[in-house]
Amino acid sequence: MPVICVGGMIGIGKTSVAELIAKGLGGDVFYESVEDNPILPLFYTASPEEIQAKRYPFLLQLYFLKTRFASIKEAYKKGDSVLDRSIYEDWYFAKVNHDLGRISSLEMQVYEGLLEEMMREIDGLPYRKAPDLMVYLKADFETVLHRIGLRGRDFEQDPSLVDYYRTLWSGYDDWVHQHYSASEVLVIDMNSTDVVNNAEDAARVVDRVRGALAESRRPVA
Hints:
The chain is an alpha/beta fold. It has one domain (3-217): P-loop containing nucleotide triphosphate hydrolases (Rossmann fold, 3-Layer(aba) Sandwich). Helices cover 58% and strands 11% of the residues. It has helices at 14-25, 40-45, 48-54, 56-78, 87-99, 105-123, 141-151, 162-179, 199-217, and strands at 3-8, 28-30, 81-84, 133-138, 185-189. Strands 2-3-1-4-5 form a 5-stranded parallel beta sheet, with helices on both faces. The longest helix has 23 residues, at 56-78. The chain is globular and about 50 Å long.
């Protein structure tokens, strides 16, 4: 099996889909560093004053950048892997927080410099330089909020976060279609897809991934 990235909004079902693909096609999942992330709860619960003083958004992006860099290098070396969000998507979150004024221009400059160096190292890897497919999960904003609620992480539930979620959601399609170029993209509509409770949906997603991979390998005439 090749290397596949699964991307999309917070709470939309990336982990479930990544596990489904890995099980259906054979391979391992490289999980996003969430449960063991010491900064993530602080990022969500800090007041604007605390964010300004402690710089949690910048620290969080550095933490994710480090862990995603390590994961994608290992996934590329190993092969047969599914990445539950990847380093390619990390920039979008940093950009949104910069646009919201939560990451300063100087911090963004430092972040982008580190990302550029990491991508240069990835481009120089001897065994693989890009994923074979991005599986992009998308849904209406109401579906996203509903799934964030179902997931039940306490630090994600504050009503004050809705505007932040909406800002992330509103620009995601543009990032995928205008900024992501590492591989072909397969879009899955999560408004009508439930891979956890509907076996037919789960089988359909795996079949679509297989088909997209086969199409991406087809020689150009």
